[in-house]
Structure formats: structure tokens, C-alpha cells
Write a structure and sequence with these properties.
The complex is a heterodimer. By secondary structure, chain A is α+β, with helices and mostly antiparallel strands. In chain A, strands 10-1-2-11-12 form a five-stranded antiparallel sheet, with helices on one face. Chain A has a five-stranded antiparallel sheet with strand order 5-6-7-8-9, with helices on one face. Chain A has a single domain, classed as 4-Layer Sandwich (Glutamine Phosphoribosylpyrophosphate, subunit 1, domain 1), CATH 3.60.20. The N and C termini of chain A lie far apart (49 Å). Chain B is built from four helices and twelve strands; from the N terminus they run ββββββααββββααββ. In chain B, 48% of the residues are buried. Chain B is globular and about 55 Å long. Chain B is of the alpha+beta class. The chains are: A alpha+beta, B alpha+beta. Chains A and B meet through helix 1 and helix 3 of A and strand 4 and helix 1 of B. Chain A: GO terms for molecular function: threonine-type endopeptidase activity. Chain A: InterPro entries: Ntn_hydrolases_N, Pept_T1A_subB, Proteasome_bsu_C, Proteasome_bsu_CS, Proteasome_sua/b, Proteasome_suB-type. Chain A: It is found in: Cytoplasm; Nucleus. Chain A: One of its GO terms (cellular component) is nucleus. Chain A: It catalyses: Cleavage of peptide bonds with very broad specificity.
């Protein structure tokens, strides 16, 4: 058992030391105020079309009733041919997709190949299953690789579903209605983008946790088109004032200077090799 | 990677979350809440499943494929927690594939069933998985093994599982006879699954069927509007 005053490099992976404490706290107080994780309260959607995959997301991040971020990026880069939309706890989706991206980059560098979507799915499934739902990440993975165009969803407990279209997040029921009505196999690019836009729009209109702008990401064999924002919110407010204050705005009443007494304890000189 | 891959569940307690920003069902575990069935016939097996995966009251996937390939002539039907059964099936498929390469011959269905049982029994406290293992091998022909929650292993000529199975035990008891041929088995399975899907809220969608024999695996889908109709006033 390490001494508390000696620094120990933290063990790799997530640290769940506070989970038991939080659970105990909640039990102690009636409706005890344990820290609420920032949830994205989101609408994300994905559609497989003829030449690739279209992913869409809203851009609102909420912290209970307050909009914490109006221009949050929910479509994360995994690899040049794979992108991932994340719903659930914002920190969990960010870190999980970062880890996944790093792992796949290492794979790419080692093998010289573009990663396949199934690889990303397997890594995610493995990790999320190991943590048994403690990582609150609902992810939509979409990408194009040598085997075709794929769209997968991975749940927080590690369950995987492969589907041609889907939506996730708090606004998913509204978005799914649009997708169920408008989806056809082998759509063209513009109808596919319009379908995803309409689905996210439905989520934004019908769900309090979703709002602001719509981001669209189109992945094809030729490359990626990350359109941010694809559609701006009609309720955008232009700031009427500048919030920058020049020096002198706050008057100085008194000034007191205290010189610190410092002692030179040790002096080392290291020569730089400039040759 | 070691030949004996082990699943190491870390935390099995549920972290309660009082946030009401996201609906209740997003915090529920995804369950296959299902109807699955497997029947032996002379020369192979017929397996079938519905296609509904639920998260609480929401249908997360209405076209799920619950008939999972473990090996060329061995499939399993999954019911229970989607994550748990997917993870177990992957582990067993790996173990069986490795074993088959070592032996340099196709694996036995009984081996696959025992691998499932080993994982399901050892981690019985952490897992929620009810699995039907079915397939064909040269030694014993078509076989169906049932590995329900808890990790029991039993071979049966016909077996049903999942939440919808309770509604069709009577139907199975009265309509199954030994000595059916492949097409009769297909029809029996399709009918049984349809009846269960009618009554069980957690089962529905399409009926996925597969027949496994020495020749190979033949898969079929019966869409919602093509299912047999039963008049209930």
C-alpha cells in the first residue's frame, strides 16, 4: 500500500474510485447532490446511401437545464475513412472516441492500411463490455472501407447492431420517424443529405435536449466532406456589445508591493551543445 | 493470445443516475427479449428466431439477426442480454475455431455447447444469457443443445427459449412429433414463432430461419406481412 505523500504514477485506464463514494453519498442524503455528468442530450443519425455514409448531429450540449455549449462537435474523427457520432455522457464519448482513434492510427502506421469499420466496432464493443455500462457512450459509427459502406451502433453495455439507417440520443424517436418514412436503399447523395438533415431537424424541434445547428458528415470512397454547420439555427442571436474591457476600466484604489526574499540554494549550469 | 480466453467482468453493480434529461430507456440494458427455437431432423437442424431487440419499452433494432454463426455447421440462437450474448458468442467462436484448427477437422456440436456452458456457468452471477446451440456434425448428425440462464446443458430434440417461449409450450407439446422432415420442421418453426410473436410484446419483427445440414447452411427470412395468419376475434 503506497504512502499518501509519495507520488505514484496512476494505473492506466479509467479510475472508478469515486463511484462507490458517489453511490454511498446518494444514499445518505434524500436526493443527494452528487455531481451530475454533462450529458449531450442529443440527436444523431446516420444513413447508408449508394456511394457511402451520411452522418448527422445537432450541436447542443446541456448541463441539466442550461445549454453549456451551443456549437458542440458531436461527430468525432476516428480515421480518415471512419467517423463516429456520440450520444450520452459527453466526457465518455469524447474519451472513448479519442482512444479508438489513437488505436486505429497505430494500426494504420503499423500495417500501412486504412482501418476497417468492423475493427473500430470490435475495439469499441470490447472496451464497453469490459466496463459493463459504466461508460455512458451511445455511439453511431459510420465509414467506408474496402469491404463497402457500413453503419453500426454500439450501446453502453457493449451491444452492437449493424443497420442501414439509425438515430440515437434523446431526440432519436423524432428522428427515427423521419428516417423510417424516407429511407430507401441506394439513395443518391443529395436526397441522403436531405433525409439526415430532416431527421436531425425533427429531433431539434421535438426534443429539449437537442438544438442549435446541424452538422453533416459525408463519407465516400473519394473522401470526407465535413459540413459544419450544414444548417444554422434560425434563433441565432447576434451579440449587441463587445465584452472586452480595456485597461483602466477598473480603478486602482491602493497598491502594495512586497518583495519576496529568495535565497539561491543551488546553481547548476548545463552547457548546450550548439556545435 | 492465450488459447483459454477468459471474460473478466469488473463491475457488476448498476450506477444509479438521477438525470432526467435523457429518457429512462436509454439507461436500460439492451435485451433481446425474444423467441428462439431449434428442431432436429434426420440429417440436420432447423433454427429460428424473431428479430426484435428492446431497451426497456423501445425497440432498438427491429431487424436483429439472433442466429449467430459459431462455425461452418454450428449456429447459436441468442436470448437475454444483447451485450452478454454477443460477447459470449464471440469468445466461443474464437475458442471453437482454435480448437478446430488444432484438430484439423470440423468441430462437434457437443463441443460448442460445452464451451457455451463453461462460460455461462462460470460467470452465472454476472451474465444473463439463454442460448440454443444447434448444428450438424459427422458423428451424431443434427443436434440441439439448450444452455439456459444459470449454465445448465441438456440435449433436446426440440427446444424453445426466450421470453416468448412461454406462450408456445402448449403448441410445441401438441404439435411436435419425432420423425419430421426438413420442410415440416421449417413450417413448425415459422408457425410457432409467429404465435409467440403475436402474444409476446418483446418479440416481433420478421422471422429468421436457417437450416443446417451436411450440405451447408440455408437462410431464409419471412417478412411481417408474409407470416401465417391466425384468426383471433
Amino acid at each position: 500500500m503506497a504512502l499518501s505523500n509519495s507520488y505514484e504514477t496512476p494505473a492506466p485506464g479509467f479510475n472508478f474510485d469515486n463511484a462507490a463514494r458517489n453511490a454511498a453519498l446518494e444514499g445518505l442524503f434524500d436526493g443527494g447532490q452528487t455531481p451530475k455528468p454533462l450529458k449531450t442530450g442529443t440527436t444523431i443519425a446516420g444513413v447508408v446511401f449508394k456511394d457511402g455514409v451520411v452522418l448527422g448531429a445537432d450541436t447542443r450540449a446541456t448541463s441539466s437545464e442550461v445549454v453549456a455549449d451551443k456549437m458542440c462537435a458531436k461527430i468525432h474523427f476516428i480515421s480518415p475513412n471512419i467517423y463516429c457520432c456520440g450520444a450520452g455522457t459527453a466526457a465518455d464519448t469524447e474519451k472513448t472516441t479519442d482512444l479508438l482513434s489513437s488505436n486505429l492510427t497505430i494500426f494504420s502506421l503499423n500495417s500501412g492500411r486504412n482501418p476497417r469499420v468492423v475493427m473500430a466496432v470490435n475495439i469499441l464493443q470490447d472496451m464497453l463490455y469490459r466496463y459493463h455500462g459504466q461508460i455512458g457512450a451511445n455511439l453511431i459509427l459510420g465509414g467506408v472501407d474496402c469491404t463497402g459502406n457500413h453503419l453500426y451502433t454500439v450501446g453502453p453495455y457493449g451491444s452492437v447492431n449493424k443497420v442501414p439507417y439509425l438515430s440515437m440520443g434523446s431526440g432519436d424517436l423524432a428522428a427515427l420517424g423521419i428516417l423510417e418514412d424516407g429511407f430507401k436503399p441506394d439513395l443518391e447523395l443529395e436526397p441522403a443529405k436531405e433525409l439526415v438533415r430532416a431527421a436531425i431537424h425533427a429531433g431539434i424541434m421535438s426534443d429539449l435536449g437537442s438544438g442549435s445547428n446541424i452538422d453533416i458528415c459525408v463519407i465516400t470512397k473519394q473522401g470526407v466532406d465535413y459540413i459544419r454547420p450544414y444548417q444554422e439555427s434560425q434563433y441565432k442571436h447576434n451579440r449587441t456589445m463587445k465584452y472586452k474591457y480595456g485597461p483602466g476600466t477598473t480603478p486602482v484604489l491602493t497598491e502594495k508591493v512586497v518583495p519576496l526574499k529568495l535565497e539561491v540554494v543551488q546553481e547548476t549550469v548545463q552547457q548546450m551543445e550548439t556545435a | 493470445m492465450a488459447a483459454s480466453s477468459v471474460m473478466m467482468p469488473y463491475f457488476s453493480q448498476q450506477v444509479s443516475s438521477k438525470s432526467d434529461m435523457v429518457p429512462d430507456w436509454t439507461r436500460q440494458e439492451v435485451s433481446t427479449g425474444t423467441t428462439i427455437m431449434a428442431v432436429e431432423y434426420d440429417g440436420g437442424v432447423v433454427i429460428g428466431a424473431d428479430s426484435r431487440t428492446t431497451t426497456g419499452a423501445y425497440i432498438a433494432n427491429r431487424v436483429t439477426d439472433k442466429l449467430t454463426r459459431i462455425h461452418d455447421r454450428i449456429y447459436c440462437c441468442r436470448s437475454g442480454s444483447a451485450a452478454d450474448t454477443q460477447a459470449i458468442a464471440e469468445v466461443v467462436a474464437y475458442q471453437l475455431g482454435f480448437h478446430s484448427i488444432e484438430l484439423d477437422e470440423p468441430p462437434l456440436v457437443e463441443t460448442a455447447a460445452n464451451l457455451f456452458r463453461a462460460s455461462c456457468y462460470r460467470y452465472r452471477e454476472e451474465l444473463t444469457a439463454g442460448i440454443l446451440v444447434a448444428g450438424w456434425d459427422r458423428r451424431k448428425g443434427g443436434q440441439v443443445y439448450s444452455v439456459p440462464i444459470g449454465g445448465m446443458l441438456v440435449r433436446q430434440p426440440v427446444s424453445v427459449g426466450g421470453s416468448g417461449s412461454t406462450y408456445i409450450y402448449g403448441f410445441m407439446d401438441s404439435n411436435y412429433k419425432p420423425g419430421l422432415n426438413k420442410d415440416q420442421c421449417m413450417e413448425l418453426t415459422a408457425t410457432a414463432l409467429t404465435l409467440a410473436m403475436e402474444r409476446d410484446g418483446s418479440s416481433g419483427g420478421v422471422v429468421r430461419l436457417a437450416s443446417i445440414s451436411e450440405e451447408g447452411v440455408e437462410r431464409r427470412v419471412i417478412l411481417g406481412n408474409q407470416l401465417p395468419k391466425f384468426s383471433t376475434h
